Amino acid sequence: MGRLAATIVYDPDIRNDGNAANDDCETGNNRQVITSQQLAQKLAEAH
To answer: Closest by alpha carbon to 22, among 14, 12, 30?
Structure first.
């Protein structure tokens, strides 16, 4: 079974936006991994 991984990478100045509640600079929540079966299901649901 295959897997797909997607990671969002932000410019380093994301920390300078002045918003203390901003979690974009927390790299732990910027990645998602799904199986190829999950991807196929999501694509089927979208049509």
So the answer is: 14
How far apart (Å, rounded) are the C-alpha atoms in residues 14 and 37?
Answer: 34
- DSSP for 1-47? --EEEEE----GGGGGS--TT--TT-GGGSEEEEEHHHHHHHHHHH-
pTM for the model? 0.50
At 1-47, the pLDDT tens digits run 688 888 888 777 766 777 767 666 666 777 889 998 999 998 999 98
